[in-house]
Amino acid sequence: MSKLALEVKNLSVEISTPAGVIRPVDDVSFSVQAGRTLALVGESGSGKSLSCLSLLRVLPQDARVVSGQVLFEGQDLLALPEEAMHRLRGSKIGTVLQDPHTSLDPLFTVGEQIREIIDYQQAPGRAVSRQRSIDAMRSVHIPAPEQRFSSYPHQFSGGMRQRAAIAMAVACNPSLLIADEPTTALDVTIRMQVLRLLAELQAEHKMAMLFVTHDLHVVRYFCDDVAVMYAGRIVEQGPVEEVFNRPAHPYTASLLHAIPKLSRRRARLTAIDGQPPSFSALPDGCRFAPRCPAAQEQCLTQYPAWQTRPAVAGGAACWRTNEMLDGRLIIQ
Ligand SMILES: Nc1ncnc2c1ncn2[C@@H]1O[C@H](COP(=O)(O)OP(=O)(O)OP(=O)(O)O)[C@@H](O)[C@H]1O
Ligand SMILES: [Mg+2]
Fold first, then answer.
1. pTM exceeds 0.90 for this model
2. Given the DSSP bridges, would you call strands 176-180 and 93-96 parallel, antiparallel or unpaired?
3. Which of 56, 208, 259, 298 has the smallest number of Cβ neighbours within 10 A?
4. Residue 264 pLDDT > 70
5. Which SS3 state, helix, strand or coil, does residue 265 take?
6. Ligand 1 pocket: which of 14, 41, 49 to mutate (most atoms <8 Å of CB)?
7. pLDDT over 90 (residue 231)
């Protein structure tokens, strides 16, 4: 059994909105093993970013964690003093947030910002930290990093800002990287280069990664495990290969059917019919039931108990998981 780098237990986040209090992260549990990548997937608005932000304790002002534990190296991040948490962010825990504007300060040059992190953590001396930040920029394929060292964030394109954010996140060889859609804004070639770089860093330093993405091809070829979120809850979790070959939840099956088939001449994206429920009007039973082709009476009234997958770590919150796993129920 390999070492757990991060263990999230029963995490819930509430937000006060004009329409009342909503709970967009609801009893979420998952873990990431050292040297492995856990993909967090799910439709827009399912709570992926809020989950990441709560682990890092950088939630928006009106949101708060109401329960749960976030265990990292034997300590609960949610219980640490802010000062200790601040030290962890950008050292042992690297972060790339969904909006790269939040990682870069517009008032300082990109190079200085990367150097500041290296200085703060390692204090190798100014000449060395300058060289290391240039190397970090080069490693994410920022062209002409010596010149770009002195550019301000607004002088970078969106894709380049994203790469700079990744360079900052990995500059100190973190043992855990939390990356929220880190490659979405990048074009395909750069995306592949950045993914390759992350895989190299992972192999070299046994870095664990929590990787939020919409791109199921990236999950397939780049991630080890996957957790699927729907309307604030994890509905399925397990090793990528198992889950992709035989999903245990109808929602996962529908997501997989919606992947554009690269092999076909004309890529077709089949969207899942219907919309996720609103957090202020959640159904009583399974949250996916109103859209689920396999929903039965019980699904509409009772939230499904977690069903474990045989032989591997994983499972799904669906009354019909066993039928899906043994092939009696096939979602087309
Ligand atoms: N500050 C806020 N105030 C009110 N509601 C919010 C706030 N931030 C997020 N939400 C709501 O919480 C839910 C989860 O948001 P979150 O950003 O975590 O989704 P996501 O899964 O990351 O989506 P995406 O794939 O679009 O990035 C959404 O329905 C969103 O509207
Ligand atoms: Mg998000």
1. yes
2. parallel
3. 298
4. no
5. coil
6. 49
7. yes
Cβ density class 94-113: b for 16+ within 10 Å, e for less: bbbbbebeebbeeeebbbbb
Start-end of CATH 3.40.50.300 domains in the chain: 1-106+158-223
> Using a 6 Å cutoff on CB, does residue 45 contact ligand 1?
yes
- Nearest bound ligand to the CA of residue 231: 1
Per-residue pLDDT band at 266 (split at 50, 70, 90): very low
Q: Tell me: the pLDDT tens digits for 69-78? A: 999 998 999 9
Cβ-contact 33, 5 below 8 angstroms: yes
Paired strand residues for 65? 13
pLDDT (0 to 100) of residue 245:
95
Q: How far is the CA of 72 from the centre of ligand 2 (A)?
A: 22
Question: What is the phi/psi pair of residue 135, to 5°?
Answer: -60, -40
The predicted structure's pLDDT at residue 10: 98
**Residue 327 — φ and ψ, nearest 5°?**
85, 5
